[in-house]
Amino acid sequence: MNIVATLAKELSVKETQVKAAVELIDAGNTIPFIARYRKEATGALDDTQLRALNDRLTYLRSLAQRKEEVLSTIEAQEKLTEPLRCALEKAITLAEVEDIYRPFRPKRKTRASTAREQGLEPLAQALLLQEPAFILQQAALQYLVPEKGVETVEQALQGAMDIIAEEIADHAALRRELRGMLWKRAVISSSPGETPNPVYQMYQEYREAVCKIAPHRVLALDRGQREGALKVSIEIEVEPFLSKINSFFLKPTGSAACFYVEKACADGFSRLLFPSLERELRAQLTENACRQAIGVFSQNLHHLLMQPPVGGMVTMGFDPAYRTGCKIAVVDPTGKVLDTTVVYPTPPQNKTEQARQTLAALIQKHKVQVIAIGNGTASRESEQFVAAMIRELALPVSYVIVSEAGASVYSASKLGAEEFPQFDVSLRSAVSIARRLQDPLAELVKIDPKAIGVGQYQHDMPAREMDNALGGVVENCVNSVGVDLNTASSSLLSYVAGINSSTAKNIVAYREENGPFGSRGQLLKVPRLGKKAFEQCAGFLRIPQGVHVLDRTGVHPESYPHAEKLLSLCGYTLEDAAKGAIGEIKARCQALGGVEQVARQLEIGPLTLSDIIDELLKPGRDPRDQLPKPLLRTDVMELTHLIPGMELTGTVRNVIDFGVFVDIGVHEDGLVHISQICDKYIKHPSQVLKVGDIVRVKVLEADQKRKRISLTMKNVPQPQV
């Protein structure tokens, strides 16, 4: 198999691009580094394409290795034929390879293996020939061996049929055919299990074609089955499958053997083949559903991490609770903790006035500008209290409801204890809530992505695939934004290309011992950070107050000479770039002959040159600043306030297969079903909306009893971004 050609075809890119990417990956370069700084080599493959390429590269290399293993095993058994060799070479999936290997792999004791030990293999082969002149009784009598348990003609024939049944079940081409039929014709059904659960009410008597079932319904059925609430099975019309098997093995000879071959076909299908294919089908459905769910989760996580920071504000983190009180932390614009306290405005203590006075004093003392309220237990009551306090005291403060998913995980973690050894677990949560409003990316990287709470069924996903996908998302986000080398935590630094957790800790230790970094070059003095790691990470680390202006940008140190020469050619200096006084640089490049000509003069590629120009024009600028800021509120709404037809502005909190959940300022998020997102048909809500989007919605229904809000975006003018 030509892996490069295969990858190029699958990804619809040139072989030269794939070859360069593979060489760079094999040389130990990270995906973010290749995507950002090796565009010339790869033809500007982005990080998504490169990760897909890397995943398929790993799979295809595993496939090639498995082919060699199977080939060697069959050869060692002296059963390798040229057709088998060709079939293995043509196989394009691991499933195909395993189908070919199936007849040759060691098996546990079966009815067929027992029959072979009894010497009945020749009889089975004679039956399969189905010759017109075949005399059944005469043939079977030759194989009666009482000492091996074959005492009668019936026993001999049964043993032969057992062998045929197993051969049918192991037949690679037949399995491939039936697998395709099963996918098209099978129905998945469910019925109540031993421990019924109302959560699965819609699946109590449920049937749907396998080829049409939505991924989230597959995951619901899987979970229901695991919990014992559902019995799930695959149903088929048997006759077409038996006809297909008969077409492979039955011959129109009129032989007496045909009856036994047909009987063996039916037995092989019902006893061996269908159960095996059913397990495969269920596993494939689950794998596809997990892949879809991980994809949606990854998208949501990306958009959540890339939410614009609400920087430059003194922020109060408000972690709601009942009995134990609401934990409060005030942090400055850099995230430094200024003050902490605990107040009791919620039941059972209801010390509302005392809490109001305490918080008002903190707000005035530290000039708090925004309050971040966690959306967990007692969030509704806390929001009501905060809104009333702002209104009654006329405080110049807004509030935001912040997802606190994962805050408790961080608080109880080793990292949380290392950062705030002086605080108990609950106060750390308040700090985390405040900080995740100020800079979602910097704070959320401290939490296991699975605990962040976007998507569906995240805890049902295969751990390895989930971790790889989400780790890639976090890595992409961190490196696309860039990291302040002098303020970043070790958690954030560990996601920078080329930096592992131990190197990240070494960077922080060096910074604490020697003071802030003055240049990127100082990184080479950090213990265990060698030239290769420096090459991978340097471009993604920023020094906003650095002496050298290029240290504030995404320009890689290897390109500093080119950037300086470019400025000189265009009549600028580094000081001009630092002052933002190079607004005409693109026009001056055009005057010099255009990007292609200037790139040749600088001896770099045009893609690299374009990136350098873009970075020089926005030194130290955060790409997230271009996105809409979170909605800030000063008052609260109740579910009872909602009436059909009311239009509201809200924030998309979660995107799932069947719709999106929108925060409209009520404690419960409202659902915009996929059918209510827009007038045209869409396959998935993510085609139109993403986490963090500000949207206008209209109330369809507010169900007080079930606390469910149905919303629509149809015929509702949307805010201009």
Descriptive overview:
This protein is an alpha/beta fold and 721 residues long. It folds into five domains: 3-104, RuvA domain 2-like (Arc Repressor Mutant, subunit A), CATH 1.10.10; 111-186 and 236-296, Tex N-terminal region-like (Orthogonal Bundle); 315-477, YqgF/RNase H-like domain (Nucleotidyltransferase, domain 5), CATH 3.30.420.140; 509-626, Orthogonal Bundle (DNA polymerase, domain 1); 639-712, Nucleic acid-binding proteins (OB fold (Dihydrolipoamide Acetyltransferase, E2P), Beta Barrel), CATH 2.40.50.140. Helix content is 49%, strand content 11%. The strands form four sheets. The protein has a five-stranded mixed sheet, sandwiched between helices. The protein has a five-stranded mixed barrel with strand order 11-12-13-15-14. A three-stranded antiparallel sheet has the order 2-1-3, covered by helices on one side. α17 links the parallel β7 (370-374) and β8 (398-402). α2 crosses α5, α8 (111-117) crosses α11 and α9 packs across α11 (153-170). The radius of gyration is 33 Å and the shape is globular. The model has no long low-confidence stretch (mean pLDDT 93).
